[in-house]
Design brief:
It contains 11 helices and 9 strands. It is of the alpha/beta class. The strands form 3 sheets. A 5-stranded mixed sheet has the order 1-4-5-6-9, sandwiched between helices. The protein has a two-stranded antiparallel sheet with strand order 2-3. A hairpin with a 5-residue loop joins strand 2 and strand 3. Helix 8 runs antiparallel to helix 9.
Length: about 300
């Protein structure tokens, strides 16, 4: 799966995991502890999502510790059943726990993947959740924006694509998140909309609804800007005092302002990185170069 889809889906799906399983699979996930996604074997394997979960067993109404494994697929895979069996064996060997496996299918083509292996001495099965079989309306009624975003991948029914996009954008615009978070929601919506060839519709509707989030009006941005001004003023005054000349004071004050403005940009970039925004978007918001942002990411 392309990394942009992969990152957005994980970010959204992990947030709504308990709600999604309760509403669509009638499974109660009581506790979730994410695990390392890499399995060291002869061939390195990286899984999409693995977590230790306390699952409420419906027959006994008692919690049972299991391993939850989810793979995200945007297209049919001829050997998916063999891949899932391999993952099951590796996970079971490492954790010694029962493994509950799902493939979340997000493709536009009809689902054609095999889910079972039936041999004389081996019986294996995993489950597939095809988002196109779920109603977009149920995601639009969800309480979180992350859940609302999944509506773009579901069955629009009588609503139609345009109405679904408009409702998702309305949810983003009216939620209580700050400008940075809303911008992140909009970016994720654009990324996911590509899986349904709706990116142009999302962009057009966002523009029509004037759905633009000005980072410079965000409270945290303004606070950082004011702090940068004050720091620049202090540094300039100190430098001017040392030089003892009006010219030196002015020059130092200007340098202080510039340094304060740069620090302001860096603070905003650090905040945006913590929120999971992509490098390209952060560069556009702050005016920093991609190299500067990547240096912050690795620091």
């Amino acid at each position: 799966m392309p990394s942009s889809y992969d990152s957005s889906l994980k970010q959204i799906f992990v947030t709504v995991l308990p709600t999604f399983f309760r509403k669509n699979l009638s499974l109660q996930l009581l506790q979730i502890q994410e695990q390392n996604l890499e399995l060291q074997t002869t061939l390195k394997r990286t899984l999409d999502y693995v977590a230790k979960v306390q699952l409420l067993e419906p027959t006994t109404n008692q919690p049972q510790e299991i391993l939850l494994h989810i793979e995200f697929q945007t297209r049919n895979h001829k050997h998916m059943h063999k891949r899932m069996l391999e993952y099951y064996a590796l996970l079971y060997r490492k954790y010694d726990l029962p493994v509950l496996q799902y493939v979340l299918y997000l493709g536009k083509e009809p689902l054609r993947m095999t889910t079972t292996i039936r041999h004389a001495h081996l019986q294996f099965e995993y489950q597939i959740i095809d988002l196109l079989t779920l109603q977009a309306q149920q995601f639009l009624l969800g309480e979180s924006v992350e859940e609302n975003l999944l509506a773009i991948l579901a069955d629009y029914g009588e609503l139609g694509a345009e109405a679904v996009v408009e409702q998702i954008l309305h949810k983003i615009a009216t939620c209580k998140a700050d400008a940075v978070e809303k911008e992140r929601y909009l970016v994720n919506l654009e990324i996911l909309s590509q899986l349904r060839n709706l990116q142009q519709l999302v962009i057009a509707k966002a523009k029509t609804m004037a759905l633009e989030f000005d980072i410079k009006k965000d409270l945290r941005y303004l606070q950082g800007r004011e702090e940068g001004k004050q720091e620049g003023w202090k540094e300039g005054k100190q430098e001017g005092w040392k030089e003892g000349k009006q010219e030196g004071w002015k020059e130092g004050r200007q340098i202080g302002k510039q340094e304060g403005a740069q620090e302001e940009k860096l603070n905003i970039a650090r905040q945006a990185l913590a929120e999971g925004l992509p490098t390209e978007l952060i560069a556009r918001i702050t005016g920093l170069s991609k190299i500067e942002i990547e240096q912050l990411r690795s620091s």
